[in-house]
Amino acid sequence: MNALVLTMGEPAGIGGEITLKAWLRRGEQVPDFFVVDDADRLQAIAHALGMAVPVTRITEPAMAADVFSSALPVLHQAIARPVHPGRPDTANASCVIASIETAVSLTRSGHARAIVTNPIHKKTLYAAGFRHPGHTEFLAHLAGGSMAPVMMLVGPELRVIPVTVHVPLADAIGALSTEAIVETGVIADTALRRDFGLTSPRLAVAGLNPHAGEEKTIGHEDGEAIAPAVAALRDQGIDAFGPLSPDTMFSPRSRRLYDAALCMYHDQALIPLKTLDVDGGVNVTLGLPFVRTSPDHGTAFDIAGQGIASENSLISALRLADALARRRAVGDS
Question: How much is the pLDDT for 261?
């Protein structure tokens, strides 16, 4: 089976060093992967941080399997300007974007079995003319099709799916609608069945306001948008229930009652997941024709280049991408 493809991510962040650390742990059930990155940059990071990681350039993905056991396979994507840790440069934005585009192309053509993306720095990309809100939306654009991309965060104890993602909170509330909640719930249910192997997924739907609106006495969204969405999902045969009070639905007792939580905005979903396990969380994009995962953290400019960044979330992302791709291949065969 073909290797996973890992993207460059923001060169001034921790992506390079956690990639090297993940390869060093290749004997710990880390699946074969290759990186679309600047080979010289990665070798320089290894030397600077005292990591014994030989870097080998490959000219095609098929070479990765033979190389991986003895060296980090890199499909060379040259950076435009030298990188200084913690100091992003818009001149390198095109290289970051090209790395993602190459990964998508290789995966869609069957030369890689899934994509794992290192963290990007959206502000730097925006300054260079990037017009997508983030990774998720850009991947959906590259994939084509009409299905909206949906972000799921997966941890050892919790799966969460925000209906609205990278928008200001005031705009997120305005963007909530019965239709958006239903669409997200349907995509989540499909993915839980296809990729996670759940025959009867249970979706807990979070309320928006304190105490889920307390029968419309604290806001109207829970009764007018969320409750009808839950009913519509149930009408489609999806085991959804709610809206639930967000202050209690993430307790250990409540988490045993569902397989994923459908949340109304970004922080409502990510705060409980990262509180439970910030290093073990993985970002999964649902609704794509290929598997894509990513660490659930950012570029960490404040510690970049120091060799102290944890590779655990990246390794979790690699393992999950491998498992999802294998399950999807069996299901599609």
Answer: 98
